[in-house]
Design a protein that fits this description.
The chain contains 15 helices and 14 strands. By secondary structure, the protein is α/β, with parallel strands linked by helices. An 8-stranded mixed sheet has the order 5-4-3-2-1-6-8-7, with helices on both faces. The chain binds adenosine-5'-diphosphate (ADP).
């Protein structure tokens, strides 16, 4: 059986096709600028890359284009659409309702619609993708995998904000956390690599991509995470501020008269690494600028590492006994400097990095010394594979049940 995973943004669809249960990647692709005059489409099958530009009106047309390309490429990724036995959708916000991936029903769709208020930028395109896929792939099971689901085990003391309690009970204002699929995946892989049961591992998992978050995992379950009601809280990110004194926002609004829409843009799109460096939100560019002596780029990098270090320290305190610290995401996997800076001089806490292993290139690996009480690992994340595994499991039991 093949499983298709779909990640829909407002104007994009990213997808991967896996052969299950072997977990091998058959095809992957990307459709961008949906709804614009020319959309961009790129697909890779068996190292053959196809790229086209043409208008694609909406997600329905996008999925049809993707299906045609899967069927018609040379070699074709599938010969018949029925080879696809399940479609797994990434859904950003599952509110308090979902603690795992589920088969999509009318009721599930209604609940995802309910949570739109909590993720107005993400859930609507996720839903558009689900509705389109139900039409295009009507023969098979559709599964929703939620970014928030892994964090449903966070206790009340960690998920509540200290504002009047009624805002939680009446409006659901609380920490939900995101990147759950990635945190869960790397925590499970870390347990395997360290020879532990998946519910025996205490770890701090650092997902450092365009968005960044860190999670405290006790006995294999999330017990705290840095992102909150929205993905704006916590670490410094490409263009998001992360933690900020709410007083700053009041100041910007009241004293400088910045309107709500502009504030939203400022905190989500103009802050973080971009805001401090003034040049880029992309870590590769910042590293290159730093080499050239750009002080602002250097400051952005140092601030990024400092914030991460503070969170790691906080979560060491939350967990007490800790087995592992795991780095993943574009920055976590590829930037030795970030790992080194965020963990330097922590021998007294039982963390001793192996400098050489830290510098080495790609792949899953342990980068701490043998005598380090806490193992440090780099584990490339694979959110789509995790979604595909969940979808396959649910599709399989759906068929046999
Ligand atoms: P997303 O969160 O969109 O999935 P990624 O996990 O790909 O993003 O992470 C993107 C970030 O990772 C960018 O800041 C990018 O510069 C950085 N990054 C990716 N590869 C490298 C690399 N080889 N060296 C340095 N930084 C990298």
């Amino acid at each position: 059986m093949k499983i298709l995973t779909i990640n829909c943004g407002s104007s994009s669809i990213k997808y991967k096709l896996f052969q299950m249960p072997g977990e091998s990647l058959v095809a992957k692709g990307l459709l961008e600028k949906i709804g614009e005059e020319t959309s961009f489409f790129r697909q890779e099958v068996a190292n053959q890359i196809t790229e086209t530009r043409r208008p694609v009106k909406n997600h329905d047309e996008g999925l049809k284009l993707i299906t045609e390309s899967l069927l018609s490429g040379s070699p074709p990724a599938i010969k018949d659409i029925r080879e696809i036995g399940g479609v797994g959708h990434r859904v950003v916000h599952g509110g308090e309702g979902f603690d795992r991936s589920v088969v999509i029903t009318e009721d599930v769709i209604a609940r995802i619609e309910e949570y739109q208020e909590l993720a107005p930028l993400h859930n609507p395109p996720n839903l558009a993708g689900i509705k389109a896929a139900r039409r295009v792939f009507s023969h098979c099971v559709q599964v929703a995998s939620f970014d928030t689901a892994f964090h449903r085990t966070i206790p009340e003391v960690a998920y509540l904000y200290a504002i009047p309690f009624r805002f939680y009970t009446q409006h659901g204002i609380r920490r939900y956390g995101f990147h759950g699929t990635s945190h869960r995946y790397v925590a499970r892989r870390a347990a395997e690599l360290l020879g532990k049961g998946k519910y025996d591992l205490n770890a701090i998992t650092c997902h450092l991509g365009n968005g960044c978050s860190v999670t405290a995992v006790r006995n294999g379950r999330s017990v705290d995470t840095s992102m909150g009601l929205t993905p704006l809280e916590g670490l410094i990110m490409g263009t998001r501020s992360g933690d900020i004194d709410p007083g700053v926002i009041l100041f910007l609004a009241e004293r400088l008269g910045i309107e709500m829409a502009a504030l939203n843009r400022l905190l989500n799109r103009e802050s973080g690494l971009l805001g401090i460096s003034g040049t880029s939100n992309d870590f590769r560019n910042l590293l290159a600028e730093r080499e050239k002596g750009n002080q602002q780029a250097n400051l952005a990098i140092e601030m990024f590492c400092y914030r991460l270090r503070k969170y790691i320290g906080a979560y060491l305190a939350v967990l007490g006994q800790t087995d592992a610290i795991v780095f993943t995401g574009g920055i976590g996997e590829n930037v030795p400097l970030v790992r080194e800076r965020s963990l330097s001089n922590l021998q007294s806490l039982g963390i001793i990095l192996d400098q050489q292993a830290n510098q080495e290139a790609k792949g899953e690996r342990i980068i701490s010394q043998k005598e380090s009480k806490i193992a440090v690992l780099v584990i490339p994340t694979d959110e789509e594979l995790r979604i595909a595994v969940d979808t396959y499991t649910l599709a399989h039991s759906h068929l046999s049940g």
